[in-house]
Specification:
It contains 3 helices and 21 strands. It is mainly beta. It has 2 domains: about 140 residues, no CATH class; about 100 residues, no CATH class. The strands form 6 sheets. It has a 5-stranded antiparallel sheet with strand order 3-10-6-7-8. Strands 13-20-16-17-18 form a 5-stranded antiparallel sheet. A 4-stranded antiparallel sheet has the order 1-2-11-5, with no helix packed on it. The two termini are about 25 Å apart.
């Protein structure tokens, strides 16, 4: 279940925006239940007031997670190796331990706080949940306008739909992708197996083939269009890029 609450009026009351600004911040939160132990996901907001289009791990909370047993992993975009593992201690667990300062994100040894880790918009991670029904809440500010993610030099980036609205692949534009050589993969949240692979044909490539209808997302055989493939808010996929200058443009979530 997903819940989105926009609170521009609350922002004004809290002093986050004023009558002098020309743009209106849209802040809120969104909660989703992991559909499997290995849910690929990422925040649907950036940190409130972020001037660099980033989010902090402290913007994310878990409900129903057991510290140590349930954690999230960030992968190295060059090797796919796990580089960060983070587990969450909720307020109730911290209170029961008579240590309210424990609330938040920690490494698996519960020795180092990870609350201040900062990531670029669109950075996703993969869950590793032993508990069933863990929910994730993302909070922050909607990144408005069309946004291009620069994935240059990343062979295996985990890319999340960083908007609070459901998209399809057809609404995302690939840049610098070679059909077949560069593709994205959707992982089964129950097994981590690849269930969908999609590659992109840009307008120039389609025109050169005298087949403008080819522009868009396809399976690797270039037989079945995948423009209608769902990319729900907060869902993530992993890239497999041979090219070094790949970028992706996401649409304005609040046009």
């Amino acid at each position: 279940m997903k819940k989105l609450v926009t609170a521009f009026a609350a922002c004004v009351m809290a002093g986050m925006v004023s009558a002098e600004v020309s743009s209106q911040n849209i802040v809120g939160y969104q909660t989703m239940t992991a559909p499997g132990a290995y849910f690929s996901t990422g925040p649907t907001f950036i940190s409130v007031g972020s001037a660099t289009e980033q989010w902090k791990l402290s913007d994310v909370t878990l409900n129903g997670a057991v510290p140590g047993d349930d954690f999230v992993q960030f992968l190295d975009p060059a090797t796919v190796a796990t580089v960060i593992q983070a587990t969450y201690i909720d307020a109730a667990t911290a209170a029961a331990a008579e240590a309210p300062e424990l609330e938040g994100w920690w490494d698996l040894s519960i020795e180092n706080s990870l609350n201040d880790l900062t990531f670029a918009a669109g950075t996703g991670f993969i869950c590793s949940f032993a508990s069933a029904g863990v929910s994730i809440t993302y909070a922050g500010e909607v990144l408005q306008g069309s946004t291009t993610l620069d994935l240059s030099g990343m062979a295996y980036p985990m890319v999340a739909n960083f908007t609070p609205v459901d998209l399809t692949l057809g609404s995302i534009t690939g840049i610098g992708m070679v059909p077949g050589d560069d593709f994205i993969q959707f992982l089964d949240p129950a097994t981590v197996e690849t269930i969908v692979q999609a590659t992109y044909i840009d307008a120039a490539t389609a025109a050169a083939a005298e087949a403008p209808e080819l522009e868009g997302w396809w399976d690797l055989a270039i037989e079945n269009s995948l423009n209608a493939q769902a990319l729900p808010a907060g869902a993530a996929f992993i890239g497999s890029f041979a090219s070094t200058g790949v970028m992706m443009t996401f649409p304005d979530p609040m046009p």
